[in-house]
Amino acid sequence: MSTTPSPVAASIIGKATPRIDGPLKTTGTAEYAADFHFDRMVHAVPVTAAIGNGRIAKLDASAVESMPGVLLVLHHGNIGPLYRTVPGDDNATNSEVRSAFEDEVIRHWGQYVAVVVAETLEQASAGAAAVKVEYEAQTPNVNMKLGDYDGKRKSVSKRGDPDAAFASAPVKVDAVYNTPVETHNPIELHASVAVWDGDSVTMYETSQGVVNHRVVMAQTLGLPLENVRVITRFLGSGFGGKLFPWPHAAMAAVAARRLDRPVKLSVTRRMMFSSVGYRPHTEQHVKLGATREGKLLALRHDYLNNTSLLDDFDEGCGEATPHLYSVANLEVTSAQPRRNMGAPMWMRGPGAVPGLYALESAMNELADELKMDPLQFRLLNDAEKDESHDNIPFSSRHLRECYEVGAKKFGWERRTGGIGSMRREGKILGWGMGGASWVAIQLPCTATVEFCAKGRLCVRCGTQDIGTGTYTVFAQVLHEKTGVPLDRIDVILGDSGLPGGPMSGGSMVTGSVLDAIASGANNAIKRLQQIATSTDGSPLKGASLETVAFTGGRLHKKDQPSTDGAHFADILSAAKLARVSAEGKTTPTWEDPKSKGYSLHSFGAQFVEVEWDPEIARLRVSRVVSVIDGGRIINPKAAANQISGAVVMGVGMGLLEETVYDPRTGQPINGSLADYLVATCPDAPDIDVTFLDHPDPIMGEYGARGIAEIGLAGVAPAITAAVYHATGVRVRDLPVRIEDLLQSKIV
Ligand code: MOS
Fold first, then answer.
1. Do residues 443 and 508 make contact, with C-beta atoms less than 8 angstroms apart?
2. In angstroms, what is the span from residue 87 Cα to ligand 1's centroid?
3. What are the Cα distances from residue 599, in Å, to 326, 590, 604, 651?
4. Is 242 in the pocket of ligand 1 (CB under 6 A)?
5. What is the pLDDT of residues 55-73, one digit of tens each?
6. Residue of 216, 202, 215, 210 whose CA lies nearest to 263
7. By mean pLDDT, which of 8-12, 149-153, 684-688 is the weakest?
8. Of all helices (H) and strands (E), which one includes residue 123?
9. Helix, strand, coil shares of the chain as percentages rounded to 5?
10. Contact (CB, 8 A) for 109 and 135
């Protein structure tokens, strides 16, 4: 991995730093939501609909209520009022419009119809299995041919006259690409533990956004905001599935209130496939036209994604299309046909990842049409300004450098264009590539930094660590600002009662929290300096503030070595103070005058090698070079880990992942980790990650943008291009199947 040397050689910013929470995780002492246990706690198990469309004719729980240990069965008839969240309230974003058990209509297979609460998990599971539900069933519509849609489409981005330009373009590609439903499969299942104290509830949650989760729960339960507290100390990932609350959380809260006992509800893996979101199916029609010399003339990107019956979920496949290339005539349109499926939800790199699968695939196909190297084709059409927004400049765009560095590392110049023309050790090699882009933004954030008389330093923020290293980033910035060693820094996150912080989503946390931590630290140091100069017994008593410095945890005169000063703990003790704290804030991008008139994105390039063994029809992604322009990298160790993980997920997207629905029942028929294939260690290629590490001048004091989700963008189209290069088989519907590969004529 290459990183540009940091200006301050000793700085911890930009230094590979092991996770400070690593020991807690590796010793099993980190507490995830379902790890919380309380006296008198009972267990809730949902009952899910066995049909995909229709209504409940009769729900009979009477026998269940007298089963051993069963305490309560909640359903439409007795859940009592649960409320919807206020539409358009950005601080109360919910996953589903409808609240739990709101009506007796079944809109998708696996919809919750009841929940059984019992003394033990086994008793609750037995009770849930015994609830008798009669349905009036109709055939569900889970048809994945979205192209049948003939309703309205909205124009997402438009310039010039793409249809006329396409019609007259001498070289073109006109193709439809499909990406299947993919289901978030974090290892940690969703869970809620609800504990009431009078009229107030504390929810231990699997939440990527405790602050938003709290507002949603308050609105759903009809409680004042101050009566709800949401805690997520650790997450075993989420991939977007845990951004917003799902109905099981309210079910747990209502059950706990009704019984006046703590209730734990853990969603099963099977339920993960029907009731907590998924990346919707996308069907994307791309038309590209170019001159014979390879200059783009026209780009049309018309996409469809399925949504549920009640929720309007737009996957946003046009996220990157309008600004990635220089092209005078462009339009992106979108529509969302409804299906009898649960609500879709953002999944790693939403919009851009499936969108770039289509766009970058079409770019690779057009390069083949032009008999041009796909890398040269991209360099020729690289955008220098954001043509989708009146040609405003990018805050920092080094995509060309990503391509050039990646090509060099990969050895791209050795590529021979002919299909099946590259061989190694009896296998056929395929080389493909793709570009990547992901939006950058600073979200509002407040952090409180506190110096304690015991010599510790503490920071509090209402964000959470999804597993990416957020705890460590906080500690790094504090160490940088104060010199206090990492093992004396306490990072407190994952509690909605803390000062407001961002969701762990959109790869936006790091870029959003840095300024708040840094300014919180600066403000807290100022207060220490004031105390040091005004406290009896302080060696700095009477000194003017401008002459006081703070180095390595010690306050001293600027013209003296820090060893002649006093440690902050001694200053606080002399002042008889337990602690001193100060707040810092991040100015969100939309309020920052500096960001006006700039287009903010991360960029990247993916180079992929596949090995094709035609004798046994075995395809393997053997090598990936990923070069990311994500602004300044704060922790290259955690950052590279994010990109490697995303590349492995890209292998899954290209070759394995697909949720399959039974057209008779609407049931996801591969709804288990045995049947839903994700890439695992043997599927993982050799991965080479490089960060360009150019600080973004618009992204706050540190210039860091997000670097997680972008690692997935561009991988799948690079894989399918490599597959074409090796086998001559053009796959436009993911994942690549063995049936596709068997069409290969190359031996
Ligand atoms: Mo990510 S899909 O923004 O959690």
1. yes
2. 21
3. 15, 12, 16, 30
4. no
5. 999 999 999 999 999 999 9
6. 202
7. 8-12
8. helix 121-130
9. 30, 25, 45
10. no
Is the pLDDT confidence value at 173 over 90?
Answer: yes
How many H-runs (helices) and E-runs (strands) does the chain carry? 17, 29
Q: What is the pTM of this model?
A: 0.97
Grouping H, G, I as helix, E, B as strand and the rest as coil, residue 133 is strand
Ligand 1 binding pocket includes 347 (Cβ within 6 Å): yes
Residue 229 tokens read as: 């507290």
Closest CA to 308 of 505, 53, 506: 53
| Among candidate residues 415, 412, 413, 382, the one with its CA nearest the CA of residue 400 | 382
Structure tokens at 480: 């940088």
Tell me: the pLDDT tens digits for 599-643? 999 999 999 999 999 999 999 999 999 999 999 999 999 999 999
| 73-113 confidence digits (pLDDT tens) | 999 999 999 999 999 998 999 999 999 999 999 999 999 99
> 366 CB under 6 A from ligand 1?
no
User: Could you give the CA distance from residue 621 to residue 121 in angstroms, rounded to a whole number?
Assistant: 42
Residue partners of 506: CB distance under 8 A and separation at least 6: 439, 441, 706, 709
504 Cα: distance to centroid of ligand 1 (angstroms): 7
Of 713, 716, 719, 734, which is closest to residue 660 (Cα–Cα)?
A: 734
Q: Are strands 329-335 and 154-159 parallel, antiparallel or unpaired?
A: antiparallel
Active site residues: 709
> Do residues 722 and 430 make contact, with C-beta atoms less than 8 angstroms apart?
yes
Question: Does residue 746 contact residue 728 with C-beta atoms inside 8 Å?
Answer: yes
- Single out the residue of 694, 700, 688, 687 nearest to residue 633, CA to CA: 694
Q: Are 512 and 443 in contact (CB under 8 A)?
A: yes
